[in-house]
Design brief:
Layout (H helix, E strand, L loop, with lengths): L2 H31 L1 E13 L5 E6 L3 E9 H9 L3 E5 L5 E2 L3 E5 H11 L13 E17 L2 E5 L3 E10 L2 E7 H4 L5 E2 L3 E6 L3 E6 L9 E2 L3 E23 L5 E6 L2 E9 L12 E5 L9 E8 L4 E6 L3 E8 L1
Parallel strand pairs: 1-4, 7-11, 8-12, 15-18
Antiparallel strand pairs: 1-3, 2-7, 5-6, 6-7, 7-10, 9-15, 10-14, 13-15, 15-17, 16-21, 17-20, 18-19, 19-21
Length: about 325
């Protein structure tokens, strides 16, 4: 066989294969362009849920039905599973706890979203049932989480201020009923020596359908340099009997006080009052307990040297 005949024979095979490919393609296009009935499975997608409810459960997350369509459509459904959008706002809540969507209502949605010359048939669901929870609101306090270290000699003064100090939460009743407060993400600072103002995010449980009116709050507190000061404060006995004379031992209590430097010289013995209540005395061992009744607001920490106060009684 000469080279010319080999080339001619090879060209004929190529032509034959080309026409076979065209014929197969034409057959395939003709086949899939025809309309026929076949089952379709679609994922259910719930939209326009009213703000007054939350979907708690559903008896099916997909639906299967017979659809009359052409092969192009079915090929597309095979490549990407279709979804059927269910507009929740169209349906009535029954007994405040469920929504029931009938086969007829599902057919209307299918025929509207999957256009065909014939209605869909053979839906695999008799009824689509959605269990719902009412959305409730509740005002709860904010609890600040913090991990703070201070420079030597510095300390937090007064209370931490959160703005706002409470937030409005809303969500399914079963979740909201269990919440008494919300907490912030942890505020971590080191070697603090000045007043603090920072922002903190509210921690919201994931996948809980819980909404918070303020997701970020402002947190602040005062920081001052402090020094220790000592006093000896006389004890006042209250509720003592008028017919007896009470002698207490000791009659004064030593205290140690942490004071901010800017008020160090402003504080004095008269700013403190230490009390023993005769009505709460220990009658068996003849002692009373001393406690701090009042102190100036800039005295951050007061430590009593002793609290057990012995006493003697004398008839008048």
């Amino acid at each position: 066989m000469n080279r010319s005949n080999f080339i001619n024979k090879k060209s004929k095979w190529k032509s034959l294969l080309f026409f076979f490919f065209l014929a197969s393609l034409f057959w395939l296009l003709t086949k899939i362009s025809k309309e026929f009935t076949a089952p379709v499975t679609a994922t259910l997608e719930f939209i326009n849920t009213p703000e007054t409810i939350s979907i708690k459960d559903v008896n099916s997350n997909e639906i299967t039905f017979n659809l009359f369509a052409n092969g192009y459509d079915f090929l597309g459904y095979k490549i990407k599973e279709p979804s059927l959008k269910i507009d929740i706002s169209k349906f009535t809540i029954q007994d405040s706890s469920s929504i029931k969507i009938t086969t007829g209502e599902l057919l209307k949605e299918i025929n509207a979203q999957f256009p065909s010359s014939r209605s869909a048939t053979n839906i695999n669901l008799d009824v689509l049932t959605l269990t719902v929870d009412p959305i409730v609101q509740k005002k709860v306090p904010v609890r600040v989480q913090k991990s703070i270290t201070y420079k030597n000699g510095f300390r937090q003064i007064g209370e931490i201020r959160a703005t706002p100090d409470s937030v409005l939460i809303s969500g399914p009743n079963v979740i909201v009923a269990e919440i008494d407060d919300v907490i912030t993400e942890n505020i971590a600072l080191e070697f603090v020596d000045s007043n603090v103002t920072t922002q903190a995010s509210i921690k919201v449980p994931e996948l809980s359908d819980l909404k918070v009116s303020n997701k970020i709050i402002t947190v602040s507190w005062l920081v001052k340099e402090i020094a220790e000061k000592e006093f000896e404060i006389p004890i006042t006995v209250i509720n003592k009997p008028s017919s007896e004379t009470i002698k207490i031992i000791p009659s004064k209590v030593k205290i140690k006080v942490d004071v901010t430097l800017d008020h160090f010289n402003d504080i004095s013995i008269e700013d403190f009052k230490i009390i023993c209540d005769y009505n709460t005395r220990d009658k068996n061992e003849n002692f009373m307990v001393a406690y701090l009744k009042s102190k100036p607001e800039w005295a951050e920490h007061v430590a009593l040297g002793t609290q057990k106060i012995d006493f003697l009684t004398f008839k008048e």
